[in-house]
Every structure is written in C-alpha cells, then in structure tokens.
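Usage

Read records sequentially. Each one opens with the input sequence:
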Amino acid sequence: MNNKNSVKLSVAVIARNEEETIEEVVRAVMPLADETLLIDGHSTDRTRELAGALGAKVFLDEGYGKGDGIRKAIEVAAGDVLVFIDADCSHDPEEIPALAAPVLAGEADLVVGSRWTGGSDELFGDIGKFIRSTGSSIITLSINYRWHVKLTDSQNGFRAISTRAARSIMLEEDIFTIEQEMIMKCLKQGFRVSEVPTHEYRRKSGDSQIVVWKVWHRYVWCLIKNLVR
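and closes with the structure output:
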C-alpha cells in the first residue's frame, strides 16, 4: 500500500466472466493498493461475488465493452493514481509498484507497461498473433512520429495514470481501442507519457476477447481521427 506524501493508489481490475482467476488477482492486488476496484462488464458467473467477498469495491459498467469499464473506473476511483490490470492473470500484480512509481513521484502522468521490452507469451506464435503484433507496431510507430516520442507499446492495458489526467482527457472509445486513445489524448494535452518493462503471461483460462478481423477497422479509425484532430 502506498502512503508516500499521502498520495493514494487505486487499482482497477477490469473483468468479465473471470471467476476462475479473479480471486488470485484481487488477493495479489489488495496489499499493493489503497483501494481495489472490480469493474465488471456484466458477468454471468461469480466474478462480482468472489471479488466482493475479498473486499474489492465492485462496480458495473454500462455493458459497452472494456473502454466503458475503464471510464467507470476513472469515474469512481478515489485515489490520486489509478492502475488498470486485467483479471485473467496475464499481468503480474507484483509489477504494480514499478508501474505506478513514476506517476506517484510526479515524474509522469501516464505510464504504460511495455511488453516489447518486458516480454510477452501472447503476442507471438501464430498468424493471428502476428497480425496483432504487426498492427500494434504500426499504430505505435504512427503515434511516435506524430508526437515525437519513443514508445514501444500502445496497446497494453496494464498501465498507471494520474486520476487528474484521466478525468481531463474525455475518453470515448468503448472497446480495447481506448488504450491507444488514452495515449494520444494525453500527448495532445501535454501530459507526460512513458513506459516501464512489464511481462505479459499467457492467460490462465478462457480466450482473448479481441477478434482482430472483426474490429481492425475501429483501431484504424481511432488512430486516424486522433492523429488529425
């Protein structure tokens, strides 16, 4: 738990139907946070029940997708810094202190966990993963050239942001595209964006909810409208 200079840390676990892993994630997060939030995308299993029983504050999003859950977390968080972590054990909660440290210290406004420098078990190995990693690289390269930064990962959901910055950028995307939107809108408004290496592990249950061939056009549109506005 962070108490330095009374700066408070909220950690939001974004989940939908993750009863097999939610207890493991919440138990690992709670000692590291001043506030643990479970933002639930209308699970039909026991995700909410299990997280609430462990002491997490449970909130329902509006049911539009991960982006909707992130906006809900930003709305309800009581901390000065907000960390987002997935509920499928693909992120290591023990990396939260390193991820949040630059924001807690006032050295950055948004810090993204980089799988390109920290490694990933999910980005490589088949054609679908190749398409995802290639698309991610193109988006990140576009952001770097537009705002003269040197980021390596624009899509990882494991990240920390000051609550003040999060509430000022007015996020709109409903799905996973909110992650690149968050970076671009922070850069537009002059917020400091940086990275730390984090490792992405293979999810312990279920399948990824990203179906690239169904949503690729939304990633392209989100990128274009934010690059040119």
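Summary fields computed downstream for this record:
- The domain at 4-228 is CATH 3.90.550.10 (Spore Coat Polysaccharide Biosynthesis Protein SpsA; Chain A).
- The mean pLDDT is 93.
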